Amino acid sequence: MNSARQTAKYVITDFLVAAVVWMSLNIIRYHEVAQYEGFHSLGSYLLFNQVLKGEILIPLFWLILYYFSGYYNRPFRKSRLDELFNTFITVTIGVVFVFFVVVLDDLPDSFQIYYTVFFAYFVMQFFATYVCRYLITSHALRKVERREWLTNALVIGVGKQAVLLSDELKKLGYRIMGFVNAENGAKPAFGHDGIVGNLDDLGRLIPALSVDELIVVPDSHADEDTIRLLYSLYHFNLPIKVRIEKSNPLFRAEIKSIHGIPLVDVTMNNFSDAGKNIKYAMDKILSVCFLILFSPLYLYLAVHVKLSSQGPVFFRQERIGYRGRPFIINKFRTMYINPENNGPLLTEKDDPRVTPFGRFLRKYRLDELPQFWNVLIGEMSLVGPRPEQRYYIDRIVKKAPYYYLLHNVRPGITSWGMVKYGYADTVEKMIERLNYDIMYYENMSLTLDITILIYTVRTVFTGKGI
Question: Which of 185, 189, 209, 453 is the most exposed place for a label (fewest CB within 10 A)?
């Protein structure tokens, strides 16, 4: 199944529907208002400069609104009931906005005409949009039911459970492209014909077999082995589903069974699709605004860091971020140079490695300001779990293996753990702080993000950063 092609069907149809509906509304506006304001024919009105602009801008507005509603995030496996509610709510918001911004400028002879135009616009936009979406979705569902459209899945595991699970998935619209041996020396529960390779072959197998999803059925019962396996799969940018029993303490995520099959999608969280899109857009917009508006502050701090001690202005360090990918985090340098010659060390209270000006930066969290660049280029978010070094992650997951869940979201400049717990100077304290970040992960919302930002601003102005 081609997700891009299916998404394009929805986008193009939504654009055409919005354009046709808007033209239809303009015909109504002509007969109700415009012909009494100097337009002598329908053609002259429809070719009027402002009306022509609207024929392009209004459909584009609808596409932007539909994007922020999250409708295009998952083009397959849609629920037609969810689709109905999503379309109704989005169209209601859009019609109200367009009516008050554009249509309200009309000056009809009777106030009653406003009601006519508003309800005509809503009815046309809603029913035309939903009917077209319903037809596209129903066509896709029929294709899946007839096994004409199948999800190509690669099963990671060669044990008995992998075989049983693959048989169940075949009944649900999956095409099993083969099995991958995740462990050297693991004894397969079937002949070698179904085994297409091992983990080292995934980079070749995924494009060659057009794999859509990875299904992990651990052969090992060791949690650390499963975590290590998941980290090795993240960078393929595919949905990863893991078979897991609810009694397993490894997963603190909600396990959603698919027709009785206990699978958890370890690349998804509970944040709504609309919330994800709005959060991502706001990250970009706010980071650009902050970098431009506070550029004098950046210059001031950079000069003082340079004058405070020898060394570079910025401190750069590799951290592990979204989907387990390493990236370079940027901070204003707060320590004397070469503070970690003996290996990674966590910052302690009254740490002698911190410069006097660095202590000031940490107190007001000003050392974190360069990370707005990381946000702008998509490596971080304004709010999210703080990223850690792989050195500490390897130690955390031994005691708290569910830490991997945090890599399903972009790390943040600030986090619930930072505002409620603060800095951690031992692995044990990092694990205690982890509970706040897991709480954030399980309850992600735009409201919670705003709450954390308010707490962070209070921390900055009160100087309680350390």
Answer: 185
